Amino acid sequence: MTTKEPVLLTVLIETAPLRWFVAGVTLQGEPLPLMRSEDGNLRDYVGAAFDEQVSFLRHRLAGVLQRGCDRLWGRRKKPCQIVFVADGPFTEAAAELTPAVAEHFIQWMVSPPCAFFIAKGGFAANKKPSLKRIAGELDSTHQGALESCLPALLEAMRNDEAWELSQGKQSGR
What we know:
Blueprint: E1 5-14, E2 19-26, E3 31-36, H1 50-74, E4 77-86, H2 97-108, E5 114-120, E6 130-136, H3 140-156, E7 164-165
Parallel strand pairs: 1-4, 3-7, 4-5
Antiparallel strand pairs: 1-2, 2-3, 5-6
């Protein structure tokens, strides 16, 4: 049996274009871009009732996690922690939406555990974002790896060729 390298399964959410990226982050802080969505992939929550927004986002992001796990497994890696980082609160929604979605994943993703952050000031390329924890915990070693890797991941987000394009569900609108 081959041992799989533990990594942080990391989902980056851009709230203006309503898209996501999923990557691995090694415990040494190396980025592993995996997959991205098209702009608008998260659009279906906009304008829906609050409970429908939470339901849509938790289902869509759970699918993102599954695809990320599949891609990591094929690279002989496995998640030891799940991390969400959004560039801000979900747009065109009540202020409670982001914490509600974050709490859902913290409650349901216990192995591996989950943490949810917002990058204060957004995702500026070549800039190390300051992270605000919304829910969950990330030990200092894992947080150090994430923070040291974020500038490289944000730079990779500007290069569509660095990521496999998701052929999953697209917005119905």
